[in-house]
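In response to the reviewer comment on reproducibility (Comment 2.3), we provide here a single inverse folding case reported in full, input and output, so that an independent group could reproduce the run without further information from us. The structure tokens appear first.
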């Protein structure tokens, strides 16, 4: 991630905190409509799953210049993902759905620069999760 991505994502943190649940609710709607095979993965998910995802997206935006603060949270979620059999191929599905949801909920505030920055930041976080999960799958 470059400096521009970091600055733009951080500048959206307050908005994401405010609209986080709306964004993640819209994200699941798009995910399950476009990738029905993803729905089965959430069979045992808790009812407040969208709140947890929203909190993590916000925490990521707020700490994007200090990712060490997220290490503990990432390890915990990676273990849960491995238990739910999440694979690398699922990350682009969530990424596309998340970007569509951000555009939908933020409207005019989701400028092309904001969308590009979030695409870059999501790609980075996906790689961190995929690497951690690979370690856990092969352990
Ligand atoms: C960077 C992207 C992602 C983030 C930030 C993220 C975040 C989270 C968080 C915060 C939780 C809740 C953990 C807890 O209960 O404490 C979770 C659980 C889960 N995530 Fe993800 N996730 C991501 C990608 C994915 C992908 C790609 C999939 C599959 C399509 C997925 C499926 C699940 C499932 C099935 C659970 C378990 C729900 C449950 O059993 O309650 N996640 N994730």
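Designed residues, in position order:
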């Amino acid at each position: 991630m470059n400096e521009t991505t970091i600055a733009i994502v951080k500048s959206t943190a307050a908005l994401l905190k405010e609209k986080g649940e709306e964004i993640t609710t819209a994200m699941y709607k798009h995910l399950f409509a476009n990738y029905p095979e993803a729905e089965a993965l959430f069979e045992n998910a808790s009812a407040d799953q969208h709140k947890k995802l929203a909190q993590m997206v916000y925490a990521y935006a707020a700490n994007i210049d200090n990712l060490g603060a997220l290490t503990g949270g990432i390890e915990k979620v990676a273990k849960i993902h491995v238990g739910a059999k999440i694979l690398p191929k699922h990350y682009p599905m969530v990424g596309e759905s998340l970007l569509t949801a951000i555009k939908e909920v933020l409207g005019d505030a989701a400028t092309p620069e904001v969308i590009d920055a979030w695409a870059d930041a999501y790609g980075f976080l996906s790689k961190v999760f995929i690497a951690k999960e690979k370690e856990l799958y092969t352990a």
